[in-house]
Request: fold
Amino acid sequence: MSDKSPFVAILMGSDSDLPTLQGAVDVLDALQVRCELRVRSAHRTPEQTREYVADAEARGCVVFIAAAGMAAHLAGAVAAQTTKPVIGVPVDAGPLKGVDALLSTAQMPAGIPVATVAIGKSGAKNAGYLAAQMLALSNPALAARLREERAANARSVLERDEALQRRLGERAS
Ligand code: RP5
Reply:
């Protein structure tokens, strides 16, 4: 039986964006959120991008993550085709190190929002978390997994602080 649970569609402008987007996939996998990953380009495959968004929505996509570098219009092009939430990830590609993609992704006209995260790998991970948080609004088990992940994150920071204090103590003695 195929899985019919709501899913997150991750689009990237090029397969060269995959090292950045892998973090979003890993976060969603760890939180047991179904996702699929496709290459679609606002500029190079505009018609296939439109078709994919309509098809993904019909199959149960509830959040889109769209990532691109340079003159990054993919997230906006996706947002133009759906009222599902769209999270934009600016990719650090090209000589402007992602600042071009950040502005292209974030500066949307009123009425067509794109929730834009940070440039690069941290942004991609946060896109995964944000998409999961959106799904968790109607999924208590996922909300619990997100809370546990936050608690584990906090424990890890405190453990690293304790390790640091031990090293500093050893140096002083
Ligand atoms: C963007 O151009 C893509 O999202 C990618 O970040 C960048 C370079 O693409 P390739 O030339 O590597 O395919 O559209």
